[in-house]
Amino acid sequence: MDDLSYEYIFKRTIDNINDKFRPEAIVLQCGSDSLSGDRLGSFNLSVRGHGNCVKYIRNLNLPLLLLGGGGYTLRNVPRCWTYETGIAIGQEIDDNLPKTEYSEYFYPEYKLHMPVSNMENANTSEYLNGVLESIENNLKQLNIGSTSLEINGVGKNPSLLYDVDMNEMIQDYEDKNKDIRVSDDIKPSKNYMDIN
Fold first, then answer.
1. What's the CA gap between 91 and 85, in Å, rounded?
2. Domains, the chain, ranges and CATH?
3. What does the pLDDT profile of the chain (196 residues) look like in tens digits?
4. Are 111 and 96 in contact (CB under 8 A)?
5. What is the CA radius of gyration of the chain?
């Protein structure tokens, strides 16, 4: 997955979600495990491409809370979050990293933006359009959105969605799920250390 493919999916999906729910604020989790070279991720995004998604959300002009998240390559995570913090506050950040006691973590580039790998993007346009179609179909099946909740007077008090006494429901759950210490009921076998 490269920058262009990811942005295509991201922007269309966000547009569909925005049309469906009309949010008053957005919480965006910005895990960096989709960046090129991440130890666990298999995407090939650049820091700039990842940040373009944050820019897209920021340009919706809604209150925005950015959260960190995944990212398993030490060189990627601070680059990504630094760049995206700059986007969030509207501050352009120099590509040359300042010298600090941590500079060696960013060897050999010492740059905010690093090149992506030469990994081939195996996602065809047919496949990506199929993913989008699936997302759009799933969104169409959702019956609630912020507009319908506010029309029904529920938007300010979500507990009105349920015709139940929440305290009664919690007590019923606690009665059925008593705290049982499994370790109190388990006695080790005399031979628990035997391998044979």
1. 8
2. 3-142 (3.40.800.20), 150-179 (no CATH)
3. 999 999 999 999 999 999 999 999 999 999 999 999 898 888 999 999 999 999 999 999 999 999 988 888 888 999 999 999 999 999 999 999 999 999 998 988 899 999 999 999 999 999 999 999 999 999 988 876 445 445 445 455 555 444 446 566 666 666 665 654 444 444 544 544 444 4
4. yes
5. 24
